[in-house]
Amino acid sequence: GYAASATSIITVNADRAVIAPAGFVMVHNAWSIALGSARDFTAMAALLDKIDASAAAQYAAKAGNAAADWIPLIDAETWFGGQEAVNAGLVDALAETPVKAAIEWDVSAYAKPPVARAAPVEPSLDRTADDAAVAAAAAATATAETAAADVQIRNDTERRVRIARARLLAPTA
After folding, report:
1. CA pair distance 158, 65, nearest whole angstrom
2. What is the DSSP-derived secondary structure letter of residue 172?
3. Pairing mode, if any, of strands 2-4 and 78-81?
4. Mapped to the 3 state alphabet, what secondary structure does 115-133 carry?
5. How far is CA 8 from CA 34, 40, 60, 61, 101, in A?
6. How confident is the model at residue 71, as a pLDDT?
7. pLDDT of 86 over the 60 cut
8. SS3 state at 114
9. Alpha-carbon distance 159 to 111, whole Å?
10. Please, is 90 exposed, middle or buried when counting C-beta atoms within 10 Å of its C-beta (0-12, 13-18, 19+)?
C-alpha cells in the first residue's frame, strides 16, 4: 500500500512502522486551494510553508537527520519504495509476511506516482511458455506505462480546464 501525502506524517509518528516490500511512502509539498485577496493568498502561502517545515521536522525526527535534508525531497515529490523507506528512516522495517491482498490506489492527483511494473518472468524448460510469459510481461509493462501517460494527459487537461474556469469566474477590476 501507500503512505502518501498526509498519511506519511501519520506513519512517521507511529511507535513502529512496517512497510510491505512493494509499498511506498511519498512526501511532497502541502497543497491547498485559496480564494480571496492578495493578503488571503499570502496568508495561505505562509501556512503552506509552515506545514512543509513541520512535515520536514517530523520526517527528520523519525529518520534522525536534519529537517533541511528533507526540503529537497519534499519539493521533488519523492516516492520511497519499501526498502528505500527503511533506508531513509521513514519506517522501521520491511514486513516479513507476504501481503495477502493488494488494493489498486488512484494516485493520479500526484505529479510523479510510481508506475507499476510487470513481475519478473521465471524461466522454465518450456521455451514456448517462456516466450509467452516474456510477451505477457512486456505487454503488461507497456500497458502500465501507456495508462500512466494517459493519466498524465488527463490530469494536465483537467488542470488546464480548472485554470480556464478560474480565469473566467475571476472578478474583473
Report:
1. 38
2. P
3. unpaired
4. CCCCCCCCCCCCHHHHHHH
5. 24, 28, 12, 13, 21
6. 96
7. yes
8. coil
9. 12
10. buried
How far, CA to CA in Å, does 75 sit from each of 8, 53, 72, 89, 151?
15, 11, 5, 18, 22
Q: Which ranges of the chain does DSSP label H, i.e. alpha helix?
A: 6-12, 38-63, 67-75, 82-88, 127-169
Dihedral angle computed from the Cα positions of residues 57, 59, 62 and 65, in that order, rounded to the nearest 10 degrees: -70
Judge contact between 107 and 115, C-beta under 8 A: no
Percent of the chain with pLDDT over 70: 64
Beta carbons of 51 and 111 less than 8 angstroms apart? no
Helix (H, G, I), strand (E, B) or coil at 33: coil
pLDDT at 53 over 80: yes
For residues 99 and 87, which has the higher predicted lDDT (pLDDT)? 87
What's the DSSP call for residue 171? P
Specify the amino acid at residue 129: A
Contact 32, 5 (CB under 8 A): no
Residue 29 pLDDT > 60:
yes
Distance CA 171, CA 168 (A): 8
List CB contacts of 63: < 8 A, sequence separation 6 or more: 12, 69, 70, 88, 89, 90
